[in-house]
UniProtKB/TrEMBL annotation:
Database matches in NCBIfam families: CDF
Protein name: Cation diffusion facilitator family transporter
Domain Cation efflux protein transmembrane: 12-205
UniProt KW keywords: Membrane, Transmembrane, Transmembrane helix, Transport
Organism: Hymenobacter glacialis
Length: 328
């Protein structure tokens, strides 16, 4: 089974599970008339819409490059996460408003036993499916699947809080616990929705993914060869599961075009082997200068004018700068 097929099946599973649990939660609200349960059910409506959008985004992300999208369609996954986060923010705001009214005008809660049982069951299912989506999403480098799975985690947590609120109401007879739980969930949902929107904007605006950039630099450092005198201006962009990497590599100025091409080809192949996704890499070759002699590892350089002192380790701090390295 291909990665695309796995993604689509997981996306479809998320839709089916979200729709089924939504029905269960509204049935639980019908039995209990609990504000906390209603909060959880309203948040689950968002689950269904966002799971559907995530499923469609997975289809779009797999479309090949074309004239209008030379880097592919992968960034639609960030749009999916942003859409999901936006809906969650709106749901959280409405839930806070509704819970505030309920707190000042509480109403009785009934059938708490059935409510606890149903909400606990939905929490277990959401937790299991969410774990499955996040784990596979990380393996397949799918932002949409990870975001969908994290949303199911959130849904599981709200169900647990709802169940605990019903238990407290049943044990104490104080319906204020129900309204307080709804207020807590509304605020929690609002904050997490905003975080998803923030993550979406970061991806669409090509904010630096420090973890990925560090991985690329560490691989270049581990595979470092003598002709690779210096690397700088390294940038990494993510397009869905795929990566676009470009950097400047300083090499001996006397290398022939064929020798430079051979070195650049090796660099690209090493990086592609490191990541289990499609990697598009462009390396700009810079000719060395005599100022680089003291950090150059070429043992038998025919034009060396300064003795080798030591190589500069490539790190996140120096490899991303748009300037050549040199000893002080």
């Amino acid at each position: 089974m291909t990665s695309s097929q796995i993604k689509r099946r997981l996306g479809l599973l998320s839709i089916v599970v979200s729709a089924g649990l939504l029905a269960i939660k509204f049935y639980a609200y019908h039995l209990t008339r609990s504000q906390a349960v209603l909060t959880d059910a309203l948040e689950s409506i968002i689950n269904v819409f966002t799971s559907g959008f995530a499923f469609y985004s997975l289809y779009l992300a797999e479309l090949p490059k074309d004239e209008n999208h030379p880097y592919g369609h992968g960034k639609v996954e960030y749009l999916s996460v942003g859409f999901e986060g936006g809906l969650i923010v709106m749901a959280g705001a409405y839930i806070l408003y509704s819970a505030t009214l309920s707190f000042f005008h509480p109403h009785p809660v009934g059938r708490a036993d059935w409510g606890v049982l149903l909400m606990a069951a939905t929490a277990v299912v959401n937790l299991g499916v969410g774990l499955l989506l996040v784990r596979n999403g990380k393996e397949l480098k799918s932002v949409a699947l990870v975001g969908d799975g994290q949303h199911l985690y959130l849904d599981a947590l709200t169900s647990i809080v709802s169940a605990v609120a019903l238990l407290l109401v049943a044990a104490t007879g104080m319906v204020e616990f129900d309204s307080a739980a709804a207020l807590l969930l509304g605020g929690f949902i609002l904050v997490n929705g905003w975080r998803m929107v923030r993550r979406s904007v970061s991806g669409l605006m090509d904010e630096t993914d420090t973890a990925i950039v560090t991985e690329v630099i560490e691989e270049l450092q581990a595979q470092r060869r003598a002709p690779w005198i210096d690397v700088h201006n390294l940038r990494v962009q993510r397009y869905g599961a795929n990566l676009h990497i470009d950097c400047h590599m300083q090499m001996p100025y006397y290398f022939t075009l064929e020798e430079v091409h051979s070195q650049l080809f090796d660099i690209e192949e090493l990086i592609k082997e490191r990541f289990a996704v499609d990697v598009e890499m462009f390396v700009h070759a810079d000719p060395c200068t005599f100022a680089a002699c003291s950090l150059c590892l070429m043992a038998e350089c025919p034009v060396r004018q300064h003795p080798f002192q030591h190589a500069i380790p490539w790190t996140l701090q120096n490899a991303v700068r748009n300037q050549r390295h040199r000893l002080d």
